[in-house]
Amino acid sequence: MASQGGDDAAAVALVRRRKVLIAVDESDESIYALSWALENLIVPGRPNDAEEPRVSNLVILLHVQTHPQVFVGPAGPGFYITPEIIDSVKKHQEEISRKVLLRAKKLCDEKHLETETMVAVGDPRDAICEAVEKLAVDYLVIGSHGYGAIKRTFLGSVSDYCAHKAKCPVVIVKKK
């Protein structure tokens, strides 16, 4: 006869944790991708039959701050970058990250999902792929800006890069 404690251990063993990383920025495409994922990919944990484990979701919201760009002309930079300017830019980026993540987390909270937020600094393509690997996520969800081939060639496509380099399945959501 099995003990009560053994049954509890078996029930705990049936819970599978699924980590979904959702890259967010201040664009409408990003919020659309998040909303799509919450409606179509993130399934609230629910008890299933004994053959299929219960799924527990962890939504990880990632916002990437890019390094400030300094443009240098043929005669050198147009102005000197002072520590005050650097601090001002950092504070502005932190405020943007705070607002983006707050907006995204609110959508997750409405669905009663376990959510973590994180900020990375660097090239979004590399930062997203590094987070995927470091956190060992099960899925990456990213919005698509819908750039054409020419614009994608010059600007690069974060979603295209991640689709090829991320070490997990990637869901690219294009706004209708």
Automatic annotation (TrEMBL):
Residues 17-174 form the UspA domain. InterPro entries: Rossmann-like_a/b/a_fold, Universal_stress_UspA, UspA. This is UspA domain-containing protein. It comes from Ceratopteris richardii (Triangle waterfern).
